[in-house]
Amino acid sequence: MGPTSPVDFILQPPVFHPVLPYITTIFGGLTHGKMVLVQGVVLAEAERFQVDFQCGCSLMPRPDIAVHFNPRFRSRPHVICNTLQNGRWLEETKFPHLPLKRGEAFQLLFLFWQDEVQVSVNGQHFLQYRSRLPLARVDTVGVFGDIMVKSLAFLRSNPFDASQTEYPVAHPMQLNSSKLAVPYCHPLPHGLASRDTITVRGLVCPVPEGFSLSLREDPSHVPLRLNTCFRTRALTWSSFPDEALSHAEKVAACFPFHPQRFFELLLVCEEGSFKLALNGIPLGQFDTPWVSWDRIAELWIEGDVTLYSVFS
């Protein structure tokens, strides 16, 4: 059975340009497959910074820290990972060859499993660290030190990739980008193919009427459209294989969108069908044998949303 309540779809919104030190609660704590994305710039004269995944946010006594990620930029730049338990640091693990440089932008992706975390730097896997505390206890993240943070985002991994054969790619979030202004056109010059994935991240406007995502061969031929209507509280997809035949179908039993709420929508192409997921939760697989993915030329988004990232 799929989710039946809008609460199941809540995804924590990203934070843009927080002032450091910055500490915030992780909604729902750390669960298997959750990702935390940190985008920023290392200061020109940086000595160190740290990202701590904590068990609480108290100041006294100091909370346990399941994962302490601490890049250091002195003579031989490296990263220290450690665990703080009952006020005492355990044996640290040192990772040399830090792929971060002073004065340069970076992107860190923390991918959490049952009892360990994988960290990529600028899209490349860097380290794997096994926590000596249960990650299920973690409910807080803190960022400190000599960096400027552009965004801090909380994401979920692709629910259709159970094997996780590929390292997740977390494209950067952008706030108030003119390139993502709505209505928005995302060109697909080579079309689409089976197993291709489109990911849209954004924020619903304060007083929305609705928004839609359309896969178009050209402006007059729209083989597939996903439509969100707040008046009827319905999420539907429709297809128009030719002028004489059209198809429309409701996607979810409950309406999963809310005003001023962050969302991440995944559309996965399959042979003769497509899959949908919202905020890491599968919505289903839908038959579209008449859609030729290789003829799709663009993704068109319009309506009452602010876009943070769109990629395919």
TrEMBL record:
PANTHER family for this protein: GALECTIN, GALECTIN-12
Protein name, per record: Galectin
Any Gene Ontology CC annotation: cytoplasm
Species per Swiss-Prot/TrEMBL record: Gopherus agassizii (Agassiz's desert tortoise)
Record keywords: Lectin, Repeat
Span of domain Galectin: 22-155, 184-312
GO biological process per UniProt: intrinsic apoptotic signaling pathway
MF-aspect GO terms: lactose binding
InterPro entries per UniProt: ConA-like_dom_sf, Galectin-like, Galectin_CRD
SUPFAM superfamilies: Concanavalin A-like lectins/glucanases
UniProt keyword annotation of Repeat present: yes
